[in-house]
């Protein structure tokens, strides 16, 4: 065996060693890609029931929102009716009630003033301002 053949055998052995060392990470990368493919496939299979459930939930929410819209419309109608009723009440009974209240307040004030004046005229000395002193 000549020196060239020995060098060729060493170079061939180094090349085989290099190929083996590079093959190990490539095999691991292939396994990782297989696992990723399986995980993606499972995720895809599990998304169908999830999307169907989300669709059912959205349909239910839309039904409830339609009910809330009806309730809101009815509440608005009731509010308008109450406003109209309060306007009618104010127009028909408000003014006479205010006048009656003012009249009764004036009468009670006059009665109190008369009583104070009567008690002051019975012999008690009064100061300026109408307060009786003993």
Automatic annotation (TrEMBL):
**InterPro entries on file:** UPF0478
The portions of this protein that span the membrane are 6-27
Q: Which UniProt keywords apply?
A: Membrane, Transmembrane, Transmembrane helix
Pfam families recorded = DUF948
Question: Could you tell me what this protein is called?
Answer: DUF948 domain-containing protein
């Amino acid at each position: 065996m000549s020196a060239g053949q020995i060098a060729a055998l060493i170079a061939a052995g180094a090349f085989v060693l290099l190929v083996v060392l590079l093959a190990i990470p490539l095999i691991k990368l292939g396994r990782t890609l297989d696992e990723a493919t399986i995980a993606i496939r499972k995720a895809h299979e599990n998304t169908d029931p999830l999307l169907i459930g989300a669709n059912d939930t959205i349909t239910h929410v839309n039904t409830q929102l339609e009910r809330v819209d009806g309730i809101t419309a009815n509440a608005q109608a009731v509010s308008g009716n109450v406003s109209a009723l309060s306007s009618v009440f104010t127009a028909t009974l408000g003014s006479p009630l205010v006048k009656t209240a003012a009249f009764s307040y004036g009468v009670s004030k006059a009665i109190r003033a008369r009583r104070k004046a009567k008690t002051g005229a019975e012999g008690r000395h009064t100061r300026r301002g109408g307060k009786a002193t003993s």
